[in-house]
Amino acid sequence: MVKKGKQERTVIHLEMNGEHYYLGSLAAIYQFFDSKTLGISYGSLRNFGLSHEKPYQNKHCIIRKGVLLTISKKNDQ
User: Fold this and answer.
1) Measured distance between the N- and C-terminal CA atoms of the chain, rounded to whole angstroms
2) Is residue 51 part of a domain?
3) What global pTM score does this model have?
4) DSSP states of 8-47
5) Taking CA 26 as the corner, what is the angle to CA 32 and CA 19, rounded to the nearest 5 degrees?
6) CA separation (Å) from 5 to 8, 9, 10, 24, 67?
7) What pLDDT is stored for residue 76 in this prediction?
8) Which residues constitute the domain of residue 31?
9) 74 lies in a domain?
10) Do 60 and 37 form a contact (C-beta atoms < 8 A)?
11) 56 vs 6: CA distance, rounded Å
12) For 3-53, what is each residue's pLDDT tens digit?
């Protein structure tokens, strides 16, 4: 449960070749990397059902879905 004044945002964590990338959506991944590099198409990744409990992994990358916790801009605590 998130406390008042806090916000949750989905974050996609891409791990590839020892590097870590954090993106705001699955679609954003494909703005920076192509299907060949990732080893999976956008449609297939959407159909996979990515979740916190179910990351996607192949020989090219690991893609995880998580939550980014932030405070509100008003700083109401």
Assistant:
1) 15
2) yes
3) 0.82
4) EEEEEEEEETTEEEEESSHHHHHHHS-HHHHTS-HHHHHH
5) 50
6) 10, 13, 17, 21, 16
7) 52
8) 8-68
9) no
10) yes
11) 28
12) 665 778 899 999 999 999 999 999 999 999 999 999 999 999 999 999 999
Question: Total structural domains in the chain?
Answer: 1
Q: Which of 67, 75, 77 is nearest to 8 (CA)?
A: 67
27 neighbors 35 (Cβ within 8 angstroms): no
Cα 10 to Cα 74: distance, rounded to the nearest angstrom: 20
Dist CA 3 CA 18 (whole Å): 34
Burial of 4-41, coded b for 16+ CB within 10 Å and e otherwise, reads eeeeeeeebebeeeeeeeebeebeebbeebeeeebebe
Q: Is residue 29 part of a domain?
A: yes
Q: How far apart are CA 52 and CA 73, in angstroms?
A: 26
